[in-house]
Every structure is written in structure tokens, then in C-alpha cells.
Amino acid sequence: MAAAVEALTGKGSRRFLVADEVGLGKTTVAREALRHLSKGGTKAFTAFYVTNNTRVSDQNASRLVDFLGNKDARKRALSKVDRLSMIPLDQRPPGEPRSPLRLYSLAPQTSFPAEGKHQSPGAAVERAFLGRLLERAVPGASEKLPNLFIQQRAVKSWEGACRTADRLMGGIDPKLVETYRNALKARFNPEGKRPSLADRIAKAANEKPHSRTLTVLRRLLAEACLEATPPDLIIFDEFQRFREMLAPAAGDRLGQALLGIGRKRPAMLLLSATPYRLYGESWDGKDGPQAHEELFETIEFLSRNKETRAEAEQLFANFGEILRAIGDAKGDGIDPLLRDRAEATRDRIDALLRPCIARTERPPSTSEDYRTRRAPLPILPGDLRVFKQFAGKVTDRNKTAASAYWLSVPLPAQALGSRYKIAEDRPFEREPGAPFLRAGKQLAEAKQGWGSAKLRALQEIAKNPELALPWVAPSIRWWRLAGPWASAPSQKTLLFSRFRATPQSVAALMSLGVENAYLNAAGTDRRRNWESKRLAPQSGLPVMGLFHPSPFLIRVTDPLKGHHATADTALKTVANQLRRALGRLKIEIRDRPKKDAERSRPLWNLLAAIERESGDYDATQLAWVATAGDEAVLGRIVEERDDVEAIEWISSRELDRLAEIALSSPAVTVGRALLRHLPTAIDPEHIYDLIWFCWHRLRTYLDNRVFWGRLGGGSITEVLVAAVRDGGLESVLDEHFWLAQGQVEAAQLLDELGSALHASLGWFTFRGLPATGSPIRLRCHAAVPFSGTDKADAETTERALSDSEEGTPPRAEGLRRAFNTPFWPHVLATTSIGQEGLDFHSWCRRIVHWDLPSNPVDLEQREGRISRYGGLLIRRPLGAKVREDAVAAGKGGQSPWNAAAALGEARFPNDTGLSPWWTFENADIDRHVLALSKSRDIARFDHLQRQRLLYRLALGQPNQEDLVNHLARGSDEKIAALSALALDLRPVAGANLKNLKKMTIS
User: Fold this and answer.
1) Separation between Cα atoms, residue 451 and residue 435, nearest integer Å
2) Is 86 helix (H, G, I), strand (E, B) or coil?
3) How many C-beta atoms surround the C-beta of residue 631 within 10 A?
4) DSSP H/E element including 590
5) 970 versus 630: which is more confidently predicted?
């Protein structure tokens, strides 16, 4: 952090690259740089956050400003505008104070559209604004344009886009109009001669493709907006995906303006774990020399010095010669003279690059093989029949590709839709002996993996009993877990595949398997059974008692403030706490006579009467009335609560039931867990939020027939109370709230969790067989696909421009948030779209390589999704080390995880500074490689792992893959010695370390 801030604020180039290994906190460095440069958000400051991945932007933008004091300040700092040309539309609502800091999240494709072959007309709101600004800048130009030139194909959205543009045009700075006019003149009429500017623009629009001229007009508008709102800091995240922006052509006015060429230059922070392209041929058809020169272009850009580039080229060439000599030498060791030369050259490279590049890496793991499961998967006759069914109907042209699809996509004849050329218009039929989906049928083929060896293996890795649990186990249990959670700790699974149809097919079939196991229904009853509910208000007062977060029970009970080694002792602790609290209220507990001792009133009514005595009734009643809203049955039950009689005594049986509810009802558990992080959680101003969450989010989530089937029989109260107790729900929630507080304020914890519980998990539609049959639509819930949501994300962003209260996250972001809770979904299947920049680590330490990536860089990116700061990978072994002391510290009312964090940092630091939150003993990825019997994938994975140890040595070398393959042929001893020669660009040394200690880092 100190190195980045020093470079960005010094007298040098003010450009810096953070190239930390995947998962080591590049966004944290960017946040601290932004905080420092903007003086904590108090200085008038404009920052651009540029990334080509909308999902990464959705995830990281809010993190970049989370140093601001409160949610409102962060909200004001984040612009909803997602492209440069629409920054003028970024106007604050009336009465809202202006934020000194403004962060714009921009995508290269939309903010800096290329004039090449693939032009886009832009968003409807953007074009509507462009048309109105064009008319102001060049009067009469609009009427000369072709019909529907500005509107394009927009129909339903056009009227709303125009209204938004009209509403926001009133606040446009007249200087922007003049700036846009000048940009148009410079492009279309630089000499100022006839014909007029309006005629020249119209001529271009009539003679050239509309999309091309619109792209030009959009770029000129972006140029004008950039001049009106110049950035103080630009953060380029995963810049290697759009590195052309770092070297704009001489005639690219927009690109030159962005970099500040010819004017005051903004500070620039580049982020990428892989800032140099490796194995270019595997990625995108580039050969090695082209790919390696991109590193030297980056060095020249960062240093703004051609001499530095030339020196780097010579040093890397020398280093490569030494490495090849080491690789050519026989024996397991390295010649001492060669080692000395390599180390000396490496050190000179380190010294040259450190002023503008920093990279931190984890120490190599010593137990990767132990945690890698890669047993060859047998192929069954049914698998081959599925292949015959699919390959027999594809065209001759696509025959060679059929096996690749069959190996990856379960039920390819039904899963591959019309968007796949290989399956388009193909008359797939049923094949004797081949499994297939039939509408409304529960078939035995599910047990055979639907003709897919990989799906069978996945069903053994993520088994139905685990997937059907409503939440995963905590990292720090407060007492011994029991029931369905008694076996090995449950966890989530992140799966990577090659084809887009694979995640959708896998997720739907895994979810179907869970339904088959626990819905206890077949045929046409399946939907009816799924939709039937047990926790509706019509079920009566027991439901109300379970989901009433009584402030009295939350306040006076805490199982950690007493004996809690087992659930039974915790229950006794809570019962004693209740007995004392009721005594303070002068409420007697009667053990005799027998008639009084066995009286049992509904808990809903009993709690209402007790809350009248404790002073909590008025606030909870108002909150329940507001929560009921227009729900007639719930409203009637709440209204009848007013008629509850006063209370003077309760029976011993009622005390036992109160204690049971206090320890293990879902609502009280949520309230008590929240209270450890938000001391005002049950105050009158917050009790409505808690009651609303328990009724409208937690209750509806738990009212799932799969959960009922998995948790066993019994009454509603018996089943849920046992689940909360046996599954350690309170400890799970405490862990989740502690983790989430790194992203949101304590007051927003319930909103964040409620949004995740309410996420739209979706459906996937399979083809019927024969192809003319009815399609089969399957739910995705326990497992979901993280793909195919870009359009929905874009629509949400565009709605946000016209609706200042738009708060619904894009579906992809909603799925990511849901996966990062301990609740459903338990499996997330994705392709390369989930491979870079996204966090899936909160509750997942298991990764499945359904298909192998083509190179070690992609392998590292995949596994970096769950090997991140404070993830489950770290918390499980850390929790095991500090559990007893952390739980003991919870008796003071604080979260055991606050204590666990302090204990971990005090007991387990190391010289790298990465322990305990980035690396930890036994923090090993649970890695699974799905490779068929006799497949080359097993050998390929071994080769990828060896390449992974060496690929950093290829930095700056031509023909990188050849070099790494050459070095990888050595012995394990030699490979270990070679890997020690990699560059060391860690910045925490010398002056930087001193500066780091002086900085106030939140």
C-alpha cells in the first residue's frame, strides 16, 4: 500500500502496477490509494474505475469507497453512470448533499467504443441524451439525420429514455455544449469550410453504416465529457484485457485525452495478477514473442521512459539465457556459478522494476497433492449410449466436436439449445438404453449421473444430504453439532467448466437430484408438493412464536454466558437466565400443583404478555402491524395479540418451552447473533427491520419442502428448533455477520443477508425428446449456474439511471452474494466468466475442475476465487486452533469471531505478513479434477501443476511455453531450486516498510 501511494503521489511517472498473486488484496491496495489521494474523501476528487467485467465492477466499486464514514456517504460517492459519455447525467437528487469524492465505474467497450468492425449504438438513454446535446451544439443537425438514426431499434425503452434525457438536460453545463461542438468541428470540419458542420454530420450518417457514425458521435461526446470531468485517479483493473488503452494511436483523441497526454496527467493505478500474457498461443492465437513484448510495453508505460524499457529487455534476455543453460545442464542440482549469475541478474531486474511494480506471492504449498482428488472416472454403457444418441444426429461437419461436448455437457442432446450450432435444428431422438429427461417424471437415471461420468463423480463429491441442508456448518461451533450436521463439516462447491451449457445443465440436474431425494413426490404432484407451505400464517400460532424475535428473550438470554459444552447444558443455562429475568419482572414460575405446572399457552400469546411487563410490547406490536401490511390472516393474528391477558405467573412447562425457543428459535437466534455486532438491534428504531427480516425473508427461505424432507419428521416447532440447535445456526450467523461487516455497516447486515436469501436462483429448460416434444423446465436452487446474465445486468444498470431508488443488484451479483452466505445455493457452476476478479471464498473451500484450463495462469485464476483473504479456507483451520478461547471470550456479549481474529493475529504471525488471513497451516484447497479413465487430463493436470511452479520464470521471455516445458522436464529437486529464482517484487522493505508503518490504514 505504501509503495503504491508513494509512487502515485511522488515526482515520477505517477503510474504504478500492483501485480499481487490472485486473492492477495489488490482491491484493498486500490482502496487505500484512493483514500490517501482523496484525503479520506474530504477533497474534491474524481476517480475512474475501469474494468471490462461488469460482475467485477459490481463487486468491487463499493469496496473502493468503504473507508467513508457511513452508508449514505458511500452511496453518494458511487455514481450509477456506467459510461463516460453519460457523466453529465450524473446529477444528485434534490436536497442531497454533494460528495467531494465521486467514483465512476466504466467499461472500455461502452465508455471508449472502438471504431472498428464491431460498433455498438450504445444504450437508449445514452443515444437520447446524445441527440438532444447534438441539437444544442449544432442546431438543425438532428433534422438532417436519417429516420430513426438516434432511436435505432429501441421501441419499448425509447419513450422512457427520452423522458430521462429531457429531465436531466436541464442541469447540463453550457460549457459541455461548447466542448462537444468543438469536438465535432475537429472531427467533421476542421477547416471550417462549407458545407456546414450539420451537413457534414448528416452526410456521414447517410453514407456510412449508422452504427459507425453513432460510434464516432459517442466517442466525441465521451471526449467532451472527459474534458469537462477530468479524473484525478484512474484505476485499471485487469488491464491486460484492454491494454490497447495504454497505448492510444496518435490520432486517437479520446485515448490521448484519457491518459492526460499534453495536459495534467492523472495518477494511474494498474491492477492485475497476470499483467503479462503467458501462453499467448493457447489464449488468443498470439505467438510467444508478441505476448512477451507486451511486458516491455507495460514497463515503458509505467516508467514513461524508453531507456528503462531497453534496460529491462537486455536484463530479461540475459536472464533467459542463464535459465536455458540451467535447463540444459544434466543432474538434479544447479551449477553454483549459474545460480550466482541468475540471482545477480534477477536482483538487477527487481531493482529496476520495484519503483513502478509490486507483487506479493504466497509461499508454495507443500500439501497440494494431498488435497487433490483425481481418481480416473469409469465410463458406463449408458454414457456411451448418450454419446451415440448425440453424435449420431449432428452434421458431418460437427462430428469432430461431438465428443468434446459429450465429455462436458450432461445430456447434450437435451441441454444444448438452439444457440449452439452443433445442436441447431438437429432431430435428436430417444436412444434405447440412454437416459433422458421426461416432463414430470422422477427417473432412476439420476442415480447413474444421467449418462455422465463427471456428473456421477460430482454427486459423490457434493452429495444430496449435504446439498439439502439449509445452511453449512460453522467454522467455530459453540457446542457439538448433531443431527444432519454431525458428520464431516458441510461446505460449498465452486465448479469450473468449458462450455456455457455445462453449468446450466449441471446445476439443474444436481437440483433435480436433491428434489428426487427429498420431495417425496412423483409425477404431476411434484410442483404442487414444491409449492406447498408449512410456515404460512394459516398454520397458526406456533409459526408466529418461531419467527417472533422477542427483544425480551434476546436481551436476557445468552448461552455463552454459562455452561454450553453441549446443547443440553446450553439449554439449562438459558432456562436459568430466564428464571432470573422473570423473577425481576415479578412473574412467578409454578411447579405445583400439577394442573398449574403443566399449563401450556401458545408461545405467541405468552411472549406478548411477558413483553407487556418488560416494556417491549408497544414497539414489537407496531413493528408487526407494519410487517403484516395487507396480509389479511397475519393482520388478524397480530390484531388479536392486543387482547392477550396480563400475566402474573407461568408454569414450569411454559418455562421449558420458553427456554427452548430462546435457545433455538430461528428468530431469536438471528436477533441474538445480530446483537453481538449491532448493539441497537432490538431497540425500537431497529426492531421493525428485525421482525420484517424474520417473517418475510428467513421464514420464506426455510419454508422449503426439500429442507423439511432432509430435516426429518415431527411438528413445525420440533423440526426447526432441532435444526437450529443441531446445526449451530447462531454460531453460523455470528460468523457470517462478522465476515460481512468487512463489506457493509452493521445496520445493513440484515438487508444484505435478506437480499441473498431472496435471490432469484432461476430455471433451465431442456429440450424434449424427440425434438418435437415438450420442453422440460427444471429449477436451479441447491446448485445454480453463474452464466448467461449479462443482459439482465445491463438492464438493471440502465434502470438505475432513471430510478434513483433502484437498489436491486444484477442477477449475477445477486447469485454471487447468495453463494457468499452459508445458505443456498451450495454449488455454483461457472465458465471462465467467473474466473477473474470475483470473490466466492466466504463459505467455499472446495473447487471442482470439471474441464481443465489450457494453461497454469487460468488454473491459478480459478483457484484464486476461493483462496482469498479470510475465506473459509482460512477460517476452518484457524477456528480449530482458537475455538475454546474464542468461544470463552463470547461470554462478554461480543462475537467469538472478534476474539478469534485477535487471537489469530497474536498467535500466528509470520515473516511474510500473510498469516493468518491469507495463508495458514492446513489451509488447503479441497481440489477435485474430473478426468475420465484413460484420459490425458490426469497427466495434463500434473503438467499444469509443474508449469505453475515455473511459469513466473518465463516473464519477459520469448517463446514462454517452450521455456517452461523445457524446465519442467527436470526433477522435482531441480524444479524447486529453479522456482526459487523467480523475481521478488515485494515492496515491503526499507523505506516502504517505514512509510507503511506511518500510514493510518483502516
Assistant:
1) 6
2) helix
3) 15
4) strand 588-590
5) 630
Rounded alpha-carbon distances, angstroms, from residue 652 to 22, 568, 589, 590: 58, 17, 6, 6
* Neighbour-count burial for 357-384, b at 16+ CB within 10 Å, e otherwise: bbbbbbeeeeeeeebbebeebebeebbe
* Angstrom distance (rounded) from CA 936 to CA 757: 41
Residue 380, CB-side half-sphere exposure with 13 Å CA sphere: 16
Asked whether the beta carbons of 825 and 782 are under 8 A apart, the reply is yes
Dihedrals phi, psi of 926, to nearest 5 degrees:
-85, 95
In DSSP terms, which residues pair with 271 in a beta bridge? 18, 237
What Cα–Cα distance (Å) separates residue 421 from each residue in 386, 430, 709, 833? 19, 20, 41, 21
Cell numbers at 213, concatenated: 457514425
**Identity of residue 518:** Y
C-alpha cell at 824: 443456498
Residue 501 neighbours by CB under 8 Å, 6+ apart: 409, 412, 415, 416, 417, 420
Q: Which residue has the cell 483493473?
A: 237
**716-727 tens-digit pLDDT:** 999 999 999 999
Report the C-alpha gap between 933 and 731 in whole angstroms.
42
Residue pointed to by grid coordinates 434476546: 554
C-alpha cell at 328: 540444459
What sign has the CA pseudo-torsion 620, 622, 626, 629?
A: positive
SS3 376: coil
Separation between Cα atoms, residue 354 and residue 95, nearest integer Å: 47
Surface-to-core class of residue 538, CB atoms within 10 Å of its CB (0-12 exposed, 13-18 middle, 19+ buried): exposed
Backbone angles phi, psi at 545, to 5 degrees: -65, -35
What is residue 58's predicted lDDT score, i.e. its pLDDT? 77
* Residue 442 CB neighbours (<10 A): 16
Cα angle 658-472-888, degrees, rounded to a multiple of 5? 60
Contact 702, 666 (CB under 8 A): yes
- 886 pLDDT band, cuts 50/70/90, is very high
State the pLDDT at residue 361. Answer: 80
Strand-pair partners of 237: 271
User: Model confidence over 22-65: pLDDT tens digits?
Assistant: 878 888 899 999 999 999 999 999 999 999 877 778 788 888 99
DSSP 659-708: HHHHHH-HHHHHHHHHHTT-TTTTSHHHHHHHHHHIIIIIHHHH--HHHH
CA dist list (Å): 541 to 536, 544, 610, 643:
10, 5, 16, 14
CA distance 647 to 606: 8
714 within 8 A of 726, measured Cβ to Cβ: no
pLDDT of residue 100: 94
Whether residue 928 contacts residue 343, with contact meaning beta carbons closer than 8 Å, is answered with no
Cell of 734: 455470528
Q: Dig out the grid coordinates for 214 from the structure.
A: 453513432
d(CA 264, CA 46): 14
CB under 8 A, 24+ apart: contacts of 258-264: 258/112, 258/226, 258/234, 260/230, 263/230, 264/230
Express each pLDDT in 82-112 by its tens digit: 899 989 888 777 778 889 999 999 999 889 9
Q: What is the pTM of this model?
A: 0.82
Contact 693, 750 (CB under 8 A): yes
Average pLDDT (277-302) is 65
Is residue 866 within 8 A of residue 844, CB to CB? The reply is yes
Per-residue pLDDT of 579-633, as tens digits, reads 999 999 999 999 888 888 888 899 999 999 999 999 999 999 999 999 999 999 9
- Whether residue 36 contacts residue 269, with contact meaning beta carbons closer than 8 Å, is answered with no
Q: Could you tell me which of 150, 113, 153, 157 has the C-alpha nearest to residue 135?
A: 150
**In sequence order, what E strands does 873-983 have?**
926-929
**pLDDT value of residue 171:** 77
Q: What CA–CA distance (Å, rounded) separates 853 from 872? A: 24
Residue the block writes with cell 457523466 = 87
DSSP state of 409: S
